[in-house]
Design a protein that fits this description.
Length: about 350
């Protein structure tokens, strides 16, 4: 459990996960149960759910090592051969260390069919810088190339620079880093610079916006205050200013960053709703968000989802998914209070 800056509320709020470490944990016992669930004819998916969806990621890594030690087998290879469909995707995602999971998401977002700018922004701007550093290291280990190199190759223009900034540590945070960093003088200076680069002139100097927004995730409190100062200077919200001054991928990326700074759980609640509404379900997005946030702030996301959409996240997931896949998602989402 940790504290994070809640931009619109001018306060700090507790981040509440839905998945907690199992108190009476025994990696060897869990490994034996998982082997039994996959050994012989048929697979006991319920046993797999009952173990993996109620263990922390660190505990899952211990189970994986114990499985290899006891049975001289790779548990990931066994899951790949025994499971299928979205349930298989979910279980494999749960078994990855968080930094590896994020590195693979970034690679797929850049090297898949087309570039998925939404995923790039979501991963790189919703996490503190120390996590971005671990993700970049994992990326280079997995793909034998620096993350920065692939960003340069697969994106372009101001949007590219926005992403590259997220990979660099902000150098002028004299009052600290992360959610708690705050320099009111710098916040006011950034607000004036944004106004001068946009509404205050003919045309738009996108580089100024990129320079400010590219480090927003590293100083969310200061950025939130900067947005308020911008409204005092301009008379418009930062969202209104962006809509009138920007377009394309850069506009979408900057708007997402604003939403993350204002209310990160609401940002993810919105993404979950988009993944489930309309014809078909974006299961990749559903798995990505629920797995990634289950040990961070999924309780907060559930609360924002219900506040915004007047329905529970559980009810939406239940109506949009089925089978073992649905049962596993529900286990990750539910808490003792549900």
């Amino acid at each position: 459990m940790s504290l994070t800056w809640a931009g619109e509320n001018n306060d700090y709020t507790k981040e509440l996960p839905t998945v907690l470490p199992e108190a009476e944990f025994n990696a060897m016992t869990d490994a034996q149960k998982l082997r039994a669930a996959m050994k012989g004819f048929g697979t006991n998916e319920e046993a797999i759910i009952d173990i993996l969806c109620y263990r922390s990621n660190a505990q899952r890594q211990s189970i994986s090592k114990a499985f290899t030690l006891q049975f001289n087998r790779d548990i990931i290879a066994d899951f790949k051969s025994e499971l299928s469909g979205n349930f298989k995707k979910l279980i494999l995602s749960l078994m990855m260390p968080p930094e590896v999971h994020c590195a693979k998401l970034l690679n797929k977002a850049m090297k898949g069919v087309g570039t998925n700018e939404d995923v790039l922004v979501e991963v790189l701007f919703s996490r503190p810088y120390d996590e971005i550093t671990r993700i970049a290291l994992a990326y280079e280990c997995l793909y034998n190339t620096p993350l920065e190199k692939d960003v340069r190759e697969d994106t372009s223009g101001p949007f590219q620079q926005l992403l590259l900034n997220a990979l660099q540590r902000k150098s002028d945070q004299t009052s600290g880093h992360g959610d708690f960093a705050y320099d009111p003088v710098k916040a006011q200076e950034d607000a004036r610079n944004l106004y001068t680069a946009g509404e205050g002139k003919i045309g738009t100097d996108e580089n100024v916006f990129v320079d400010v927004f590219g480090f927003a995730a590293q100083c969310r409190r200061q950025t939130s205050e900067m947005f308020k100062m911008y409204k005092k200077i301009s008379g418009k919200t930062i969202e209104q200013a962006l809509k009138s001054e920007m377009s394309g991928d850069l506009l979408h990326g900057l708007k997402d960053i604003v939403e993350i700074v204002h209310n990160r759980p609401a940002f993810f609640a919105h993404r979950l709703e988009v993944a489930m509404k309309g014809l078909g379900t974006n299961d990749n997005a559903l798995i990505r968000i629920i797995v990634d946030r289950s040990e961070i702030d999924l309780v907060n996301i559930k609360s924002e989802y219900e506040r915004i959409y007047c329905k529970t996240l559980l009810s939406s997931v239940q109506s949009e998914t089925s089978g073992d896949y649905r049962r596993a998602l529900i286990c990750l989402i539910k808490t003792a209070d549900d």
